[in-house]
Amino acid sequence: MAWRSSSTTNAGLIGNLASSKLIKSPRVKEAMLAVDRAHYTRTGAYEDSPQSIGHSATVSAPHMHAHACEGLIDHLRPGSRVLDVGSGSGYLTHVLANLVAPNGSVIGVDHIQELVNLSVQNVRKSAEGRELLDSGRVRFYKADGRLGWKEGAPYDAIHVGAAAGGMQQNLIDQLQSPGRLFIPVEEGRLQNIWIVDKLEDGSVTQKKLYEVFFVPLTDAPE
Known about the structure:
Blueprint: H1 10-19, H2 26-33, E1 51-54, E2 57-59, H3 62-72, E3 81-85, H4 91-99, E4 105-110, H5 113-123, H6 127-135, E5 138-142, E6 155-160, H7 169-173, E7 175-187, E8 190-198, E9 204-211
Helix pairs in contact: 2-4
């Protein structure tokens, strides 16, 4: 089970995820090893479980971040452009930037300004993170993630870190051809991960993967 991947160090956590086959790609393992989760949560940094970051938001469990990276890996290449919707703590944004290095870029959007500020502060805790921000390879904006971020489109890959009320056409429209969207979608009382591929000819395919539980992709609290 995923919780057995927990450890007392970042290297131990990532190593356990790899040993459990939750991380399969050496590139994903390397990218996650390079980002210390302790920079992104005050509690349970090396536990394989979600952790609160305030404002009714969480940093997802590491195994979910691994699943997301594995699901998008074929579209995460040097030079790729990526959108991270619901970027929260900024952790996965940083990991994604490692996967599109040295010349790719990642835009993180969140609908709560305090979380946008938090993500910038977190990324700046490492020398590598400061370079990503200063070079513009990682940028964060306050925005309604359901609308995407048109200014940076089209994207080779889009990750959504909160459960959408339905399939988000705005995000599909902002995909490159080819491009891939990884998104949790509410379906009645359930939530499921969907992979949406836009093919070279612009046609779109959708595939449901597995059941999950995420915080909802909603309006900012008043």
